[in-house]
Write the structure tokens for this entry.
Amino acid sequence: MDIVARILLEPAAFGPVNNWNQTTLSQVDRFLFFLPNNKLQEISLALMTVGRIERLFMSQHRWERGNVGIHCSDENERRRLSEKQQFVLQFFLGFLKIHPLSPTPMVPTCEILHTTAPSAWTSLLSMSSLAFSNCLELMGHDPFLASYQRSSALKKAKQSVIAQLGGIAIELSPEELSSLRLTERSSIAALGAVRAWSNRQLSALFTTVLNSTEQSPSQLDSSTLVAMGYIVCGAQTTEITSFNAVEFSKAVLWLGRLRLSCSEEQLLAFVGLLTHRLAFGPMSSWGTAVFIEIGVLAAGLPDMAMSALVNEQIEGITPAAVSMIPPDKFASKMC
């Protein structure tokens, strides 16, 4: 490789690299990967299009699989070539911001990964979930993936798989759930739609969502709370009281439809959030519509509030909420 590079760089061969044109690149072909990095940087950015780079990779692949190439490289040479290919992609497709004219980094497609190599890309995590899943096997067979690439790819693969597991995920232990990285809303929603979690699993999942999103309970917005679904029952009462009342009131229309497995203390804390002046306001002002909207969370009404309900309010309590109200609360109302 070094000998060929020296021949290509001799003035009598193709002239200065910064004067090379499309014709020159076509003649140099796959041997371009043999040039040192500082010489590669002298090639005009305009000449090194995605199509040109793909053709270079394909030319190298054809040679490696040919009658001669199949016998002509060892592990060290392949690794060295892989590093050079990675530099070509990173420099000409914008991952290395060496100067202001560097292009915007490109997000690879599954098709491009097939013509180039997964290990040559540093933006695998930017791929869509579908494209990533379709190319996961290809990534797994690339021997030159760096440790950080394998680690990040595994995390994304877990997210993709988790979103598909559904109820199967309840077989994961609390410890296994704690090791997940739930940053994508789709992954959170997939687990939040499962009802059969144990209390320990719910607690682990709630903590995992906070750790993965790097948020405190007070920072959770309505869309995240909706995605969490049944997982909200994994929050401690002290954590619930720190929720943003306005964001929680926006999510309650969805959460109120779920047969939540929350404790009476948790439901009471949820109701407390809804009485915030910027949510639904004092409970005495709630009408039928509010009780219909909060659904099962009405089961968290304190005893005194339950005994003070008027007919208009009682009419808004949904059957699901009634089924969750402890008998002693009904007794206090009857008295």
